[in-house]
Amino acid sequence: MSSAAADSRKRRAARACLACRKRKTRCDVARSGMPCNNCRLDGVECVVIKSRRGRYVARTKVHMMSRPLF
Ligand SMILES: [Zn+2]
Ligand SMILES: [Zn+2]
Predict the structure, then answer these.
(1) Is the dihedral angle over the CA atoms 37, 8, 13, 47 positive or is it negative?
(2) DSSP of 9-50, one letter per residue?
(3) Residue 50's pLDDT is what?
(4) Which tens digits make up the pLDDT trace of 5-33?
(5) Domain segments of the chain: what residues?
(6) Ligand nearest to the CA of 25
(7) CB under 8 Å to 25, separation ≥6 — which residues?
(8) DSSP 8-state secondary structure symbol assigned to residue 61
(9) What local confidence, expressed as pLDDT, does residue 66 receive?
(10) If you measure from the C-alpha of residue 18 to the centroid of ligand 2, how many angstroms do you get, rounded to a whole number?
(11) Is it true that domain 12-50 has CATH number 4.10.240?
């Protein structure tokens, strides 16, 4: 196990590079960095676009639900 103990286990949306998105292949760019495995194998450029509005923010319109947040 060669983990660097810096494995942040955050539940983010799976990030995939453009090539993987197009091909619908699994992208491990979030884990192993760029280029991802598929791009490295294919020898193509690994491009990841950061989406600015993917932050799961309900626009100030928060309903107070009587449900315990987990
Ligand atoms: Zn990829
Ligand atoms: Zn890639």
Answers:
(1) negative
(2) ----PPP--HHHHHHT----HHHH-SSPHHHHHHT-----PP
(3) 79
(4) 555 555 555 689 999 999 999 999 999 99
(5) 12-50
(6) 1
(7) 19, 38
(8) -
(9) 72
(10) 7
(11) yes
